[in-house]
């Protein structure tokens, strides 16, 4: 047993320091599919003070530390190498307080998102952060990756919900800024640095999140459009008429739409004819007297103005579920395809041209291929899936190279919401300039001079 | 002429480097009333490259630089000392682009807020940042101070509207991150550091701001309440029923309300009786079919549930203006009083108890005194005004000492929206812990190792 492990056992107790086979396989890799590795040790601290003690020891020994949450990340930021010690927040779990007057929730970093959501709901509030991994992912990881998800168009990214943060720096300094106030201009807003830093600047231990009134009323429609410009026009129209009640705007190019329809139970399009573009729209409101009428009027005007070619408005929850089944066919992708997935952002107005050019570039590289385009356009977020099974020659690296080169050219982002981790590190410079990367390194050097926190990730 | 001035003239041209009497008095101090000083020189760069050249020269000469915007700050952050060179952004003015698809506005830092607001309005959008100084303040200063203002309850602080930023570091490095995308998780979000840094970390030269659909429909009411808990109940009730359409929630304690009524033209309270608490509420919406009915129903239910004791709903724009005249009597304070003003934040649920305790502490210190309490409670923001004229012995320092000691005890913020500057520097440690202050210094050291940017401010 080496000196650092001995010191950690001394500080945290044997039960909180595991090695070898005692480290569960779930700590070897995350949902990114990055190559697993058994780390040198697993730390399971119970308190912020234990996190601080562990980091102080590791910093003194120049021992690299990989913070881990729910291991649902898609960029490999929580995957260790054999020489790393991993620090899991799983024992620091629980909602500590809901303050109804301030509309805030104070939570330990290892709390699963769904647990926090349910605690908020029990008090008549909504935690407006949601995505598929809700049952497994943890709040600390959500903050460390600035998670996006299903509610971004209405409520923003994780950053927008964060009011206060407790974080431990590499040298064991505890920064406790559990602020509940909307307005607080007292010096630098340090918490912002840790949002999206993917464990490279500090270990998040606690957070204060903003709650909102629930928006239980949902009205859903599927619209057919003439082209991408029609989608932009509809987005603008809905925003002017519904404001922040626009709850979803999911654009689907025909290749994606047709595939998805074929994967639904009914295998039937809601439209009699084929269309050049489809969008699933939703109004999510706190509930007015005639929300259904308001939604129908907005879509009716869009039809009358020629913005929308055709529309199907869900008349019931099961209607709405049937429309969402099309968009959510992506859950079937791992079975139906060998999916090579991209998560990128582009200035909204340029997304249509980007898709055309990207499609042409794929065709030039792989004469036989299948690619599917869809996205949360209101968030500037585009997803692209290439089917490796039916696209001879197409590899993840090949798809990345082509698409990210175009992203760079279009002034886009190589990571909309998944982060950089290890998988996108080679492409970070496509979206950030040398001066930005150099400044990030200055910040890293200032907060973690020995470079022990998640080395090899992001930068 | 010293070497640094000569080098600046060489780089920027004589016209952009002024000294002595050629420096207008407006560059000597800001709206804080801090003691004016004639700086060593005034720089008037025209481009980001000129800002970079100027900072490179100043950094090489260890010459301190004070960035200046519209000089409307209330904490003295832009006030020079005699040894400083001031750098005004006033020549870098103008809206460069409005992107309707992305709903963004790209603007030079020296642009007055009102110019940006009008440019957005001309394209059918709203820039949801507003306050009294709109005609004089500049976008760069708004960002550097994370300005708040009249729209915070609905649209957040300046930080929440900021998508992209161009900033020049002390060594002349240009960080250009003119991002327009909602989702962009590519490394550290560096722009966040400069928001609220009050010119101590970099000079802001350009920004991309988020636009929103206009909310032209306003419905206004004045409510009478039994106590502070009633105000909390009404705020929760309105948020549950109106969601993000709650456009104002201005709480007024009776001392403030009575004074303000006496300062209106009519000198008459809209209520027949006196009440323990008043709140001016507003719904600001994009406009539905029956917004007036919706607003009346929400207030009617609050009356019926006993949350509200009495209410006056404005039936016209002039009714609404008359109600706002009461709240906006603060504009008369400089004439009617010798106002000693505080701008603080507290966790919303504790504001009532704070006011009671603060009032008692003032009474203990100054048996004869007049203090007035009011605030944007939905933003956690409380304002306190003590009248120096009728409060023998009360000084600004005395009021600060008493109130800030209580703010510290209540876990509040000594600056809600005005920033720290020089005036609140002695009290920064009341709201931020030693570890936070030490980490701020680490960041300052990393980005401005020679300490040339706005020395003596904030930290």
TrEMBL record, chains A, B:
Belongs to the FAD-binding oxidoreductase/transferase type 4 family. It comes from the Bacteria. Its cofactor is FAD. GO terms for molecular function: FAD binding; oxidoreductase activity. Gene3D superfamilies: 3.30.465.10, 3.30.70.2190, 3.30.70.2740, Uridine Diphospho-n-acetylenolpyruvylglucosamine Reductase, domain 2, Vanillyl-alcohol Oxidase, Chain A, domain 4. InterPro entries: FAD-bd_oxidored_4_C (IPR004113), FAD-bd_PCMH (IPR016166), FAD-bd_PCMH-like_sf (IPR036318), FAD-bd_PCMH_sub1 (IPR016167), FAD-bd_PCMH_sub2 (IPR016169), FAD-linked_Oxase-like_C (IPR016164), FAD-oxidored/transferase_4 (IPR051264), Oxid_FAD_bind_N (IPR006094). One of its GO terms (biological process) is respiratory electron transport chain. Pfam families: FAD-oxidase_C, FAD_binding_4. Residues 35-214 form the FAD-binding PCMH-type domain. Keywords: FAD, Flavoprotein, Oxidoreductase. This is FAD-linked oxidase.
């Amino acid at each position: 047993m080496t000196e650092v492990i001995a010191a950690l056992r001394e500080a945290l107790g044997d039960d909180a320091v595991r090695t070898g086979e005692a480290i569960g396989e779930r700590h070897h890799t995350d949902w990114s599919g990055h190559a697993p590795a058994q780390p040198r040790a697993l730390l399971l601290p119970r308190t912020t003070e234990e996190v601080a003690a562990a980091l102080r020891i590791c910093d003194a020994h120049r021992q690299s530390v990989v913070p881990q949450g729910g291991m649902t990340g898609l960029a490999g930021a929580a995957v260790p190498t054999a020489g790393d010690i991993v620090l899991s927040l799983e024992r620091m779990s629980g909602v500590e307080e809901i303050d109804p007057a301030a509309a805030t929730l104070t939570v330990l970093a290892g709390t699963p998102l769904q647990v926090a959501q349910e605690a908020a709901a029990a008090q008549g509030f909504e935690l407006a952060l949601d995505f598929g991994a809700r049952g497994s992912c943890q709040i600390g990881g959500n903050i460390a990756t600035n998670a996006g998800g299903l509610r971004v168009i209405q409520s923003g990214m994780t950053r927008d919900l964060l009011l206060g943060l407790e974080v431990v720096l590499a040298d064991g300094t505890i920064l406790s800024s559990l602020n509940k106030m909307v307005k607080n201009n007292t010096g630098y807003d340090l918490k912002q640095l840790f949002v999206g830093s993917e464990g490279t600047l500090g270990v998040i231990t606690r957070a204060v999140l903003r709650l909102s009134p629930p928006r239980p009323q949902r009205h859903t429609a599927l619209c057919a459009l003439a082209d991408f410009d029609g989608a932009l026009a509809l987005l603008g129209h809905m925003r002017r008429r519904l404001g922040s009640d626009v709850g979803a705007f999911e654009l689907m190019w025909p290749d994606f739409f047709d595939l998805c329809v074929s994967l639904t139970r009914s295998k039937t399009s809601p439209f009699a004819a084929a269309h050049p573009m489809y969008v699933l729209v939703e109004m999510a409101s706190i509930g007015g007297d005639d929300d259904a009428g308001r939604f129908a009027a907005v879509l009716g005007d869009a039809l009358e103005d020629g913005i929308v070619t055709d529309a199907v408005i869900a008349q019931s929850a099961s209607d709405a579920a049937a429309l969402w089944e099309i968009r959510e066919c992506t859950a079937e992708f791992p079975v139906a395809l060998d999916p090579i997935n991209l998560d990128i952002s582009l200035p909204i107005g340029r997304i249509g041209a980007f898709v055309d050019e990207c499609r042409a570039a794929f065709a030039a590289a792989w004469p036989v291929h299948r690619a599917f385009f869809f996205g949360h356009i209101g968030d500037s977020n585009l997803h692209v899936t290439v089917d490796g099974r039916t696209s001879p020659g197409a590899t993840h690296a090949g798809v990345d190279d082509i698409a990210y080169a175009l992203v760079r050219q279009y002034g886009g982002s190589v990571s909309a919401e998944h982060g950089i981790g290890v998988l996108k590190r080679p492409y970070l410079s496509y979206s950030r300039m040398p001066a930005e990367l150099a400044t990030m390194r200055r910040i890293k050097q200032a907060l973690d001079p020995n470079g022990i926190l998640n080395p090899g990730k992001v930068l």
